[in-house]
């Protein structure tokens, strides 16, 4: 809350106005604060994106970014140590499922005005660790990545709410998490690695960004549950399936595509990352 709002509230609370007025004014101020829109400029996004690209070699030393959302998040949070605004921009510029970067022009579009629903995200519904569901905006490189995080019968992805300490304060976020894949790592040819799902005697060359040490992913951020974060779910809200389908940002076309992908129809399972992320986070 800004100084003006605090001063305004204090002046009323110190006066002789009716208590009902206090409540109305307080609720009104809170409502206005909640409704404040996020503002990002093209130049801000471009600068953050440029910096992210410069750090590529540090995030992915062997240049393999497959399923690299875990490494992006960890580097942004622990190494870059951004402010909240910067943190929000950084975490809109990569796909947690594929590890691909997202062009900032997809986020702002031709208008140059940020909208929470844009060409770089989809409105998704994902199970929460407490058993309920959360709806929110997931930033992705392509639609199949949304299907993968919502494929709860096969993939162990859940939403968790955590407090993150950033440069300008501590803020609550809804994050997407998976079990630590390094818990099943093996030492092959003198190096602890993830194992190829199709050949347990070989390292998983498609996914090599995970720094496994003593069966723990060192280049990750863990939640209190012990799971690791691979992306942020923006504008998260509790929602039932009925509420999700009635939401103004619900995408029926995406739902149909996901149904085909998750049920292996029309070869849709081969789109996007194929089965790489699915195998990484498989139940």
Key attributes of the depicted protein:
283 residues, alpha+beta, 2 domains, three-stranded antiparallel β-sheet, 11 helices, 12 strands
Mean pLDDT, rounded to whole units?
88
* Secondary structure tally, helices: 11
Q: What is the radius of gyration computed over CA atoms, rounded to a whole number of angstroms? A: 21 Å
Separation, N- and C-terminal Cα atoms: 43 Å
Tell me the strand percentage band: 15-25%
Structural class: alpha+beta
> What is the overall silhouette?
globular
Major sheet characteristics: 3 strands, antiparallel
The side-by-side strand order for the widest beta sheet comes to 1-2-12
- Low-confidence stretches at least 5 residues in length (pLDDT < 50)? 25-36
Q: What percent of the residues sit in helical stretches (DSSP H or I)?
A: 25-40%
- Count every beta strand, where a strand is a DSSP E run of 2 or more residues: 12
Number of domains: 2
| Secondary-structure element pattern, one letter each | HHHHHHHEEHEEEEEEEEEEHHH
């Amino acid at each position: 809350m800004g100084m003006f709002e605090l001063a305004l509230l204090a002046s009323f609370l110190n006066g002789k106005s009716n208590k009902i007025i206090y409540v109305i004014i307080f609720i009104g101020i809170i409502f206005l604060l909640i409704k404040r829109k996020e503002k990002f400029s093209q130049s801000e996004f471009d600068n953050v994106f440029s910096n992210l690209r410069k750090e590529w070699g540090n995030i992915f030393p062997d240049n393999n970014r497959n399923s690299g959302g875990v490494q992006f998040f960890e580097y942004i949070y622990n190494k870059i140590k951004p402010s909240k605004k910067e943190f929000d921009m950084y975490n809109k510029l990569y796909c947690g499922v594929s590890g691909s970067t997202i062009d900032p022009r997809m986020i702002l579009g031709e208008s140059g005005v940020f909208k929470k629903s844009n060409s770089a995200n989809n409105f998704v519904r994902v199970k929460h660790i407490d058993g309920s569901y959360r709806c929110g905006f997931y930033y992705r490189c392509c639609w199949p990545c949304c299907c993968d995080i919502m494929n709860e019968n096969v993939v162990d992805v859940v939403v968790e709410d955590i407090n993150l300490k950033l440069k300008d304060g501590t803020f609550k976020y809804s994050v997407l998490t998976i079990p630590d894949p390094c818990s099943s790592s093996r030492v092959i040819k003198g190096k602890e690695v993830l194992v190829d799902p199709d050949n347990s005697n070989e390292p998983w060359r498609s996914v090599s960004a995970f720094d496994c040490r003593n069966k723990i992913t060192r280049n990750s951020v863990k939640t209190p549950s012990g799971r690791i974060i691979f992306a942020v779910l923006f504008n998260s809200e509790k929602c039932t399936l009925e509420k999700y389908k009635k939401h103004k940002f619900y995408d029926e076309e995406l739902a149909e595509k996901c149904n085909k992908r998750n049920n292996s129809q029309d070869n849709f399972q081969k789109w996007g990352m194929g089965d790489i992320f699915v195998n990484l986070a498989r139940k």
